Amino acid sequence: MTSNTHHIVFANEKGGTGKSTSAVHVAVALAYQGHKVGIIDLDPRQRTSYRYLENREATMKRLNIEIPQPLYKVFEEDSVSRLEQLMEVMSHEVDFLLFDTPGRDDEFARFVATRANTLVTPINDSFVDFDLIGQVDPETYKVRKLSFYAELIWEARKTRAKADGATIDWVLLRNRTQYVEAHNMKRIVAALAELSQRVGFRIIPGLSERVIYRELFPSGLTMLDKKHLGRLATSHLAARQELRELIKHLALPQTSQQPPVSDETALAQPKLVA
Q1: How far, in Å, CA of 173 to CA of 125, rounded?
Q2: Model pTM score
Q3: CA–CA distances in Å: residue 154 to residues 25, 27, 149, 270
Q4: Which residues are registered as beta bridge partners of 269?
Q5: Of 1, 123, 164, 227, which has the highest C-beta tally within 10 A?
Q6: How far apart are CA 32 and CA 142, in angstroms?
């Protein structure tokens, strides 16, 4: 790539971890900050993020409103070279280019992982999801070895380093956290911390399991569109705070000098790391 676009890849070979919800909310948050944002949906079957933003566009027309809207595409081709061409074109139009990958092993997801600046892997707080990146001893819960996916990302990072000397910031996003038995939670946290030291990912807080995220999909609205959500319940305010924390901990560069679109960006406009 010849542009300075920051590539953010949301990837996990397991479904149901909140990749699309996280990707769309991060994209809209960056758009609210005044950045030019694009998102490529690499799952032409489900096309969840594409449909979310398609619904958002329809809501804008129906209500005659203007709200920040990322550029969005769904990739339906069958070759890596065509994907690379699409990335090249969009990278020259946006400051941030996000990728929503399928919840399965996929050659295009592997390819964009090697091009990522920030690689976000959402997981749920359970050893079922943890097994994707590491295997633990059934008695001590100590990490025994890396799983296939962690080795895959390790190789992707080495490939990127050899290609242009860049470092992929691998971020593990703890999504859909719930109030689980405290002892089990401690085991998961300890195993994540141990594995992060081995393979070098960062662990940050994500989005909890909340009905509001599913309810907003038909309208394409997000927790950032306060003016169009009506009176917010306490749980909704908590969801907005979660998003604030997510954006802050991603520590993305400020690549655009454009002013925020509205006061809403105060929720996601800390001094970020360049």
Answers
A1: 10
A2: 0.90
A3: 27, 26, 9, 30
A4: none
A5: 123
A6: 42
Strands 134-136 and 143-146: antiparallel
DSSP-derived secondary structure letter, 13: S
| The pLDDT value given to residue 223 | 87
Sign of CA dihedral 103, 105, 111, 114: positive
Instruction: Identify whether the C-beta of residue 10 lies closer than 8 Å to the C-beta of residue 102.
Output: no
Question: Distance between CA atoms of 161 and 151, rounded to whole angstroms?
Answer: 15
Residue in 103, 125, 131 with CA at minimum distance from that of residue 21: 103
Count of C-beta atoms within a 10 Å radius of residue 79? 10
Q: What is the pLDDT of residues 232-268, one digit of tens each?
A: 677 788 888 889 899 999 999 976 556 666 544 445 4
Distance CA 37, CA 18 (A): 20
Q: What is the pLDDT of residues 206-221, one digit of tens each?
A: 888 788 888 899 999 9
CA distances from 102 to 16, 135, 137 (A): 10, 23, 29
- Rg value, the chain, Cα: 18
Q: Which of 15, 13, 6, 29 is nearest to 176 (CA)?
A: 15
